[in-house]
Design a protein that fits this description.
The chain has three helices and five strands. It is globular, with a radius of gyration of 14 Å. Strands 1-2-3-5-4 form a five-stranded antiparallel sheet. The protein has one domain: HIT-like (HIT family, subunit A, 2-Layer Sandwich), CATH 3.30.428.10. The protein has 134 residues and is α+β, with helices and mostly antiparallel strands. Helix 2 crosses helix 3.
Length: 134
């Protein structure tokens, strides 16, 4: 049995979509950008180098398939991938679909305005298309 526990802030700000081999794939609850997180289901990880080489390899694979599915689902111009961890120490990787003219373009999404909740129907439809693309 795993002792992995999701950080309360990640749990509050995102919704679990599916558990992959290593990571939870979670949808951020801010509809301004199609934005998912990968959270490795490992305890005590705050940096990528805290993971085993095998887990690092698995994270790379899961990042690629999640990013490709997000790009396919959204038709976006660019996929941004980043791991900051300044506010939430638990290692998590952001994968964000970006387009020219989006609310923060060309700057970063962090700290830009207030989050906008998903319409439940739009979130369900987006989630279904994303999971299909996986």
């Amino acid at each position: 049995m795993s002792d992995f526990v999701i950080d309360p802030r990640l749990d509050r700000d995102s919704k679990l979509l599916i558990k992959l081999g290593l990571c939870q794939l979670r949808l951020m609850l801010d509809s301004r950008w199609p934005w998912v997180l990968l959270v490795p289901q490992r305890s005590g990880i705050s940096e990528i180098f805290d993971m085993t080489p095998l887990d690092q390899t698995m994270l790379t694979f899961e990042t690629a398939i999640a990013a490709k599915a997000l790009k396919q689902t959204t038709g976006c111009l660019k996929i941004n991938v980043g791991a900051l961890g300044n506010q939430v120490r638990q290692f998590h990787l952001h994968i964000i679909a970006r387009n020219e003219g989006d609310p923060a373009w060309p700057g970063p999404v962090w700290g830009h305005g207030d989050a906008c909740a998903w319409n439940p129907d739009a979130r369900a439809e987006f989630t279904e298309r994303l999971l299909e693309a996986l």
